[in-house]
Structure formats: structure tokens, C-alpha cells
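Appendix B: complex inputs.
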Amino acid sequence: MAKNITPREEDYSQWYLDVIKAAELADYAPVRGCMVIRPNGYSLWEMIQKHFDEAFKDTGHVNAYFPLLIPNSFLEKEADHVEGFAPECAVVTHAGGEELEEPLVVRPTSETVIGHMYSKWVQSWRDLPVLINQWCNVMRWEKRSRLFLRTSEFLWQEGHTAHATKEEAMEETLKMLEVYRKIMEEMLALPVITGEKSEGERFPGADNTFTCEAMMTDKKALQAGTSHFLGQNFAKAFDITFQSREGVLEYAWTTSWGVSTRLIGAIIMTHSDNDGLIIPPYVAPVKAVILPLGADESKLAGLYEPKAQELAATLNEILGKRSVKVDTRYHMRPADRFFYHLQRGIPLRIELGEKEYSKESVRLVRRDTGERFDVSWDKAPEVVKETLDAIQANLYRRAKDFREANTHYVESFDEFKKVLEEKGGFIKAYFAGGKEEERAIKEATTATVRCFPLDEEHTRGKCFYTGKEGARLAIFAKAY
RNA sequence: CGGGGCGUAGCGCAGUCUGGUUAGCGCACCUGCUUUGGGAGCAGGGGGUCGAAGGUUCGAAUCCUUUCGCCCCGACCA
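Resulting structure:
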């Protein structure tokens, strides 16, 4: 048992922080609410980025970069947007030793600057669609921060697209939601429920927001990514107009969608255990580490290590450059080296000592299950790959089973409160309420509507709260 | 912004109430020896002026005033 990690059952949020610390993912910065993403955390982010970036490009998007600073007046052009974001904006009032004529806002999101630029770039229906993404940092001065889940500054990706028709924009919104789902599930091993946000949970300025909701191992919900259908709100605010085929001047239809470093928090709270971090193999910067073991230095240097290097080279060809490392820190005792990699979440440990060498084998130890078994040198590359696939599949399956075991259906508010208190987790219920009812439920229970799942889009029933017929199926939960 | 906790060595803390020798302890770190397949043992060693400013006093980590910051819990949010 790890001696530097608070057990999850004892104090979940302390456990979370301990895991981050032990794995050296991040550290507190000198500025309140800000974090330093350390190499272990950043390389994980790079892996996540890589998968999403590929998918964005595969769906026809291109990357660009817009500035960090936004004129204050831009924020004010869209009423809901300013209302939603103004309270959490950091504002630059001085520069170059002088007070600025107009304060500059550090972007909390870039719809406004991008809208401004799109209005210059879009003239004709031939200029559409515009499909741009940017990887950047944003700043939201939240009252309360939590490493990776909510920091004043965070890294993310924001896609911003403009289209000629409403249908096409809606199609884009849902397409990107699906891209998110696919990568979260297949690469990050995060089972998510995709759905539509309720009125009260929408992005400020959007007509409609769609989300990927995941369940953490404390049974709370985490919004892992969102895709917004912005209608013509920003097009009207920023005058993004184009002349149609028919020669009529029309407003464009826009979308925006984002995932952030919060996904690292999701990975931690979905897969890790009391020994520390567990990284799904497909996003693990280091997928396996080979440890030459033994007290005999001449054998280490002369036999085990060369064999380990040779195996690493073969594996790197199959799994991708730098995905397998050889740990040659012989000044550390084996147990210390085991724990080192255990806490950093390396999916697979490969041991090569005297016992293995004499049998021309290596020992594999899975991070997810602790299971260990030997495999011969000639079979090792194949088996390592298979095992990594198996770990990936197991992490996903485990998380999904957990979510399903902790999802309950209710038909009345009394039942809702009872289930929430006694069991927690996700609650499925037909719901026909609006903003007012959402708020009342939240005040009474702290649970919120996470989404109306898309795969239940056509089911209808009697609202558990208002009793109205024809209500949509919703998922409620306490959320991060 | 409300509630709670806390700033003393890299980290975690004791010492503060009841001012008084060179400010301690554990982990980490450095050196050596012995160990080495799930967090080693012994020996030696380096490192802090006690968040900051002001005050009281012969004397302040300790008392007083002011101030800055951080963490946790809540309301707000990716």
C-alpha cells in the first residue's frame, strides 16, 4: 500500500491531490488558483492533444491562433455571454506604464475575437464553412480552484466554425460531440454519456449545448467536453454576414466546442487507485518500462541491460517512439523502482532479472490488475501489445460497469431524494421542468441536470417532478 | 464571497498558551559500508532566522497591531 497517498475511501479529494503529487503531474503556482503542469502531466496532455488534433484534422478543421487579450467592449456585444463571463474575467488595465483607454480582458473563451475576425473573412457563401480550431490557454477567475478540474488558467482547445445554414451548423455541433465521445471512450477509456444540456446549464450565448458527461469513482459527474450550437447569436453580435447564392445578405450560423486539461482530472478520477495514478495505455506517454534487476552489476551491465535495450527498441517500433523506457537506476532498490512507476501510472512493468534471463523470458506486471506473468523473449513484443490493449479495454469496461452499477431510475421526487442520499450516482428520470424547477431541485438536493441523453432522445414519460406527460429522459447527479 | 485551517529546512510537522542557552523532529538530500524480486539498516553530514512590516521588551518563532498569501468545505463555473 502506498504510504504517501490517502486512501480514496477515507478522503476522496485528498486522495485526488495526493495522486497528482505522487505522480508529479502538477504543482501549485505562486499565483492563487494557478498550477504548473509538470512534465509528467504535460506529456499526458500532449498525448491527449495528439488524438484530438488528429481527429479535428480528419474532419476538415485547421488550426490557427487568436490573441490572448480581447477588448472589453467585445465581451459586451452578446448579452448572455457578458452576463455569463464578466464576473470571472481577469482584466488588464495598465500596460507600458500607462492606463489603457480601453481595458483588455484575458480571454475566458474566444467567441468574441473570433467572431470579429470571421466578420472580416466571410463575405460570400463561398467562404463558408469556416472550420478553425485553436489550442491555447484561457483564464477564468473562479472562486474556488482544484488542480486540473478548475484552475484560474487552463489549457484547452476551442473549435469555432461558421456555416451557411442552421442545419449544417447543427450537424457540425453534433459531429464534434461524437468526435469527443469517440476519443474519450476509445483513447482515454472514459465512458461518457452524450446529451443535450438543460436550459439552466447552457453555455452563455448558445442556443443549445451538448455535453459528454462522465462518472468519477466518487459517483459525481464531470462534464468532460461540450459542443455548442450558437445559432446566429454571435453572428448578429459581430456581424458575420454573407451573401447567399440567391444574392441575399444573411447571418452565418456558428458553433464552438472545447475540451480542456480537465480531462486529465477525469482520467485520474476514473482510473486511478490507492497506489496512485493509472494511465490508459493509449494516452500513456510511457506505455511500459523495462527494469533490469539483480545485485550482480556485471550481469546487469553485460546481459540484462543490453537485452532490455534490445527489447525496448523492438517494442518502440511496434508501439511508437519513446513509448517504452528502460529504467537503469541501479542505485535504487527494486521495490523503490517498482513504486516509482506504479505511482506514475505506467500501464505495464517489464522485469528482467536473473530468473527471467536464464529462461529467456521477461515478467510482465499489469498496473490495472496487478496481475503478473512470464513471457518468452520471442513472444514478448506481441504479448506486450496485446496486454496493453487488454489493459485499455479493462479500464474502459471497469469504468463503464461502475457507472452502470451506480445509475438508478426514479419516478418521484421522494424516490429521487432517497436514492440520491442512499446510493448517489446518476439518476435517470423523466423531466419536463424548466429553469425554475431545475433550481428548486438543486437547492433541495445539490444535484443538477447533467443532460438529456441523445440515445434516449425519443423516449418519453411522465415527469418525476411536475407530473407532466411527454417528458424527456434526463440524467441528474451531483457534479464537479 | 461565507465558514474552517494554516504559513518555522525541499516536504510534513513540534515548539507559540506560560517570551530566555547554539530553533528541534520525521521524511527527502549528500558521503560511506552492508543490503537489493513490493517502499532497507547502520554511521556520518549539509541545509532554516521562524510569511512580511511595525511595535512592546534587557531579550520575540512565541506578546500586540497591520498586512500578504495558501489550502480545505460551501455558493458560482470547463
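Chain A has 14 helices and 24 strands.
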